[in-house]
Amino acid sequence: MADHVTGSGPGQAVDPEPFAVTMEMDRYLDRQVRDPRPRPAFSIRPRPGDDRRYVAARLDDMVTDTLRTSLALAYPYIAPGAIYDSVWTWDAYFTGLALPTRYLDHFVGSLRILLEAIRADGRAASLVEPDGTASYDHMGQPIHAQWALAAARLTGAGEWLTQYWPALVATRDWHRRECSGRHGLFRWTDESGSGIDNDPAMYGRLGGTVGLVDMNCFHVRELNSMAALADMLGEPGADQYRREAEQLRRAINAFMWDDRAGTYRHLDLSEHHRTTHQHITWEVPLQVGTWGCLFPLWTGVAEPALADRLITEHVLNPHKYLSGFGIRSMAADEPMYNNIAMADPSNWQGPVWGLSTFLTCYGLARYGYRHEAVRIATRLVNLMADDLKANDTIHESYDADTGAPLFNPGFISWNLLARRVLDDLDAGVDPTALD
């Protein structure tokens, strides 16, 4: 790559040429049955108020697009829609929390399918295909215990989970055995597949070397959920799970918080080599701001003073995460920030997603920024309304700078949270909360 020279003359600074973000779309499209390319862009209608009732009614009509059955699977399940028809771990979990309660059998069924796909060694599948094939190409997100806790509370019955307790314990033991890093933090074992698929802190890097903020926050929720389930089911270990959750919460705030930048950072947790007499007492942060760095807000892991800085300096900063259409999946001042349409990996390097926006809004409300949360959620709800009116569908993600649809028309999934998020925020409710 040629150097880009600014100015001329001896000693003039030489800057690298800005790199181009690319994706092999033709190769991706060759293997697809349904065209995932976006419908036409549409005009955005600035207006007072919100279109929550219109969006909720339209999404209610689309709910059935996520509900699936298969002769190869023992239970009904949830699929994201569009080109996706498998049981994807976090898609099914967050979609299920947004479904009307009359479809709880699909929420519970998806959980059962994934719990029964946990291997004997405790490794969880990332997805299960309609033909019953479980994929272990990537580790599944650590959400099984919090999902089980939600299912028990929503159905009003938890006894059926007793049969799955050994699987839940096994997957916790697998994470301890295979993913534990320094300070009790957890490492992501793969080079991609965390859900935030192309987070530069993880994508293409050697597996088992990175401590992701988002995944460690998921583990805090898992440990607290395991404690609650142990109490519910009369199983041992509740106090130990609570201690581990608190220790991990403290480690996230101690080691992943960057006080100079006012944000949490993913960490390089690769093994140390070739040291001599000095002991390494530090961790090296990965200097890239992605939506995963905001997870301490949604999960309640952040200390209040740290949350205030993260919110005021980053989340509500239009030069970073705040878009006119929701929350960016990467801070806009990062050098790799972009809004191109891509898949495999999905693009979380800038575009606005329903999940990143709505979970961040629940996190804002948790820390006392409810009015800001309502305004931000309204931006995306209204954008979806314009998409529905123009294209009769919604998309997987949207350009954070223009609002244009980017990929996969008909992607319902966690976008169903738009059915309820504004009413939730008005009422002080978070359907994803553990308590």
UniProtKB/TrEMBL annotation:
Keywords for this protein: Glycosidase, Hydrolase, Isomerase
GO function terms (MF aspect): Glc3Man9GlcNAc2 oligosaccharide glucosidase activity; isomerase activity
UniProt keyword Hydrolase, yes or no: yes
InterPro entries: 6-hairpin_glycosidase_sf (IPR008928), 6hp_glycosidase-like_sf (IPR012341), Glycoside_hydrolase_63 (IPR004888), MGH1-like_GH (IPR054491)
Residue ranges of domain Mannosylglycerate hydrolase MGH1-like glycoside hydrolase in the record: 84-407
Gene3D superfamilies referenced in this protein's UniProt entry, alphabetically: 1.50.10.10
GO BP: any one term: protein N-linked glycosylation
Family: Belongs to the glycosyl hydrolase 63 family.
Xref: PANTHER family: MANNOSYL-OLIGOSACCHARIDE GLUCOSIDASE
Protein name as catalogued: Isomerase
Upper lineage: Bacteria, Bacillati, Actinomycetota, Actinomycetes, Propionibacteriales
